[in-house]
Design goal:
Elements (H helix, E strand, L loop, with lengths): L19 H6 L13 H12 L5 E5 L6 H16 L2 E6 L2 H14 L4 E4 L2 E2 L11 E4 H5 L10 E6 L5 H8 L2 E4 L4 H10 L1 H6 L3 H4 L11 E3 L1 H6 L1 H9 L10 H7 L7 E4 L3 E5 L16 E6 L5 H8 L5 E3 L9 E5 L10 H9 L4 E5 L2 H4 L14 H10 L5 E5 L14 E5 L7 H8 L4 H16 L9 E7 L1 H8 L1 H4 L4 H16 L3 H12 L3 H13 L9 H19 L3 H10 L1 H7 L1 H18 L2 H14 L19 H8 L2 E2 L5 E2 L4 H4 L9 H14 L3 E3 L1 H5 L5 E5 L3 E7 L11 H17 L4 E7 L16 E3 L1 H21 L9 H24 L3
Parallel strand pairs: 1-11, 1-12, 2-5, 2-6, 3-5, 6-11, 13-17, 14-15, 14-16, 16-17, 22-23, 23-24
Antiparallel strand pairs: 3-4, 7-10, 8-9, 9-10, 18-19, 20-21, 21-22
Length: 829
Amino acid sequence: MTFDFSKIKSKKKETLPVDPIELFQKLKVSDPSINDLWLAQGDALRKWHENRTKRDVGIVLNTGAGKTLVGLLVAQSLVNETREKVLYACSSIQLVEQTAEKAKGYGLDVTTYFRGQYSSDLFVRGEAPCVTTYQALFNGRSVFFREQLSAIVFDDAHAAEHLLRDHFSLRLNRNTFPGVYAELAALFNPYYQKVGKAGSYSELEDPQCRRLFLVPPFEIHAQQGELLRILRASALQDNRETMFAWEYIHDHIDLCCMLVSGAEITITPPFVPVLSLPYFGRETRRVSLSATLVAPDAFARTFGRVPDAVAAPSTTAGECERLILIPSQLEVDREDTVITRELIKDRKTLILVPTYARATNWQGVAEPPPKESVSEYVRAFKADPGTPKLLLAARYDGVDFPGDTCRVMVIDDLPMGVGPLERYMWEYLSLSNTLRTAIASRIVQSFGRISRGMSDHGVVILTGERLVDWVLVPRNRAVLPPFLQKQIVLGYEVSAHADEVKELYAAADQCLARDENWLATYNEYMKTAEPDSSEVDTELLTRLARSESDYASLIWRRDYHGAAKVLSTTLEEAFSLSVSTGAWHCLWLGHALELLGDAGSAQEMYSRAHSNQLNIPAYPREIGKEYEAVPSQVMEVDSQLKILADGAVILPKRIDADLAHLDGSGTAGQTEESLRALGQYLGFQSTSPDHEFGTGPDVLWVIDGQSALCIEVKTDKKSTTPYRKEDVGQLSDHVQWVKDQIGSKEIIPIFVGPIIGVTDSTNPPKEYKVVALEQFHILAHRLIAALKMLQQLHCLSHSEVTCGRCSRREGYFGQKVSVLWKAIVFATY
């Protein structure tokens, strides 16, 4: 037998189209729904093509506006240009399969990669993009780390942030790793004993305990050797649950924080070092697709930089008709989830919850499907013509139910807390300003699950106090798209005007049945309503996000000096955003300084972090048992003082500047901050809820979790203008907010302003107080005088304090603080 070489002929090189619109025009499309590019798709492709050589380009198209076709055309265009390897990343295997199926209908070839298998060699040969998952792309042993990638298209780019965090997080489940969990929990028990948290830390003995403990970086640094011994003895590199995260952090344990709950221990960096990944170098172009305009700060936090250009064509696609119902607005004594069960009992409904723990609220209605079977459950739900219920936990993207596949959805509770660190930042540190844009993005994505275009319609029910409170605060709502803002306010009005559950049920029926009365009201309202204007300082948020990302990258490669410089440069800006943000940055600036060898400066930062946000763990001081009897308030004041080796006491450097505007010289905002700082220096948990959350009092002082001062600043009120009914009503609302959020047993409502009367129509409760700003100014002087007197005592260092000396210090200081506290309460008329 001989081989017939005459069959081998040279092939003429084909000129491949690079312009994405020209590429589309040459496709052999078999999908009957595709006749031509829509206007917005064409605009997006042209804008991207103009900026194709830039490293980071964003493309924003509403849900239902054909984003997948645009992304695939961009990916193939980049393949045709470079003849190199291009990736198209999706957030789940289900979406990989769905995208590949769509590509086939568009006449585009793709390779898929998931579960360790390529579907073809087109990607390797540089002929077609590879559609894969974020998990395959970001895991610590990714096959793509070894590839020279010319470009990556990130679909649903908003989902990348928490997926990146997941891959850099070592999560040690108590059931899977009982020995490791027990050893690590015990390792840090002495620290919590030392800082007076032994009782609460012991609650971790209960596996159901949801309390979170943040093990601070200085304690991880101190226990680094033993921590590594425990982890390395556990063969984490051989367990599929831990092997990928272990690959990232096994050489960076001392750069991480640790979060401990009753169920698991998580070790994760405070800021994801995304710039350490090869995909974010200058050699790779990146295109980010999203259904919502990702805020620049959220983009910078995810990808380490802001886009060089954004293609966001104006389109009404995705602006579907919605009736939003808020059952909690009914004047009935029943939980909103109980009311919602009635509203959905005979309706096909999708229910979204943020966690599996929250899913238990829907027992008897639906159970979340097993994680490995979500795709099968989704397909079955879509096809079911009856009234099934599908409950999904922590899934705000990647599942779509257009048209009659689902017209009713419940969004239950605020879509946050995807991971332990984010939950800690929200629930314990109140970093609402930092997380606002991320939460807004998830809310928008949630609404998009049953909305696929202008012709679509449906009913969305909002439940859960935190979610409802969030969307009803104008400052929060303002970061949502204007169209959705109007729908939320309309839904609030509909819900507030209903007297009973039957009316809400009827309203939903009218929407679903296309009732003329509903349609007329909806169209008129959407035409005439005005959305809220955003007050978010986007530039400030973006600078801080870039600072966090740069810090993460620098410290990950152990450039401690560079990392410290980055955070120190923006530290005061972080405090201007919120005290909690500044405190969080102080903690990690202190960590960089400690690793740099500057122990004194590090301890100053650790002290400032804790004093500004008491839920940030305190730096421990060596103290005797006798000192443990000192009241916690006195301990908090003491923690803000620096004690040198010779026993000299150094007052906080910024105390005079922080309290300066109590003399009446500042604006209302400056006065509020000085009042907040005064509470901090007095050893209270002192916050500015209105600045942090957009609701609540101007300043809140909480004392040992038992008592609280709810303070409204009225220093700009003229002495001839009495306090009005609206002023008292606002303070009453804020007192209720404090009750709901803090649960303090005693709440003292206070106006800080001129001592004047009220209007005739105003009837303030007896417990309401008015205190002149001058009284707080006097209080600040007395506090500083007390601290200076303490300074003159020239106490010995804590390690040398005797029982008698300690008692004298505690007796003097405890008495002084008590007197100061009473002065506030009784300095009223």
